[in-house]
Specification:
Largest sheet: 5 strands, mixed
CATH architecture: 2-Layer Sandwich
Structural class: alpha+beta
CATH class: Alpha Beta
Radius of gyration: 13 Å
Distance between the termini: 9 Å
CATH superfamily: SCP2 sterol-binding domain
Oligomer: single chain
CATH topology: Nonspecific Lipid-transfer Protein, Chain A
């Protein structure tokens, strides 16, 4: 992403352009993003067969759930907070397969 994202909606609208199919090889998963706060929202992203599908709302059975405030997630996507630092500081929480969580950066170009 050349410019910094200004909203969570913009982040998820741009996932198809930032998606890295090579990093997603062998991944078949649903990533749920539950982002709180005024600018937040719920989105789920299905990755399968090196393809990506982005949806608004809540998936009934995600493989991995990412919980964060919208502001912290936006700062992470924009490179203002390193993803691992955000996780270690408790700004981003993950429920589910931690191995998949480690692949998020590569798959979604964070």
């Amino acid at each position: 992403m050349a410019d910094k994202a200004t909203s969570i909606k913009e982040v998820f609208d741009e996932i198809p352009e930032r998606f890295n199919p090579d990093a997603a090889a062998g991944v078949d998963a649903v990533f749920q993003f539950d982002l709180s706060g005024d600018n937040g929202g719920k989105y789920w992203v299905k990755v399968a067969d090196q393809q990506v599908d982005v949806n608004e709302g809540e998936h009934e059975d995600p493989t991995l759930t990412v919980l964060a405030s919208a502001d912290d997630y936006l700062a992470m996507v924009n490179g203002e907070i390193a993803p691992m630092s955000a996780f270690m500081q408790g700004k981003v929480k993950v429920k589910g397969n931690m191995g998949l969580a480690m692949k998020l950066q590569g798959i979604f170009g964070l």
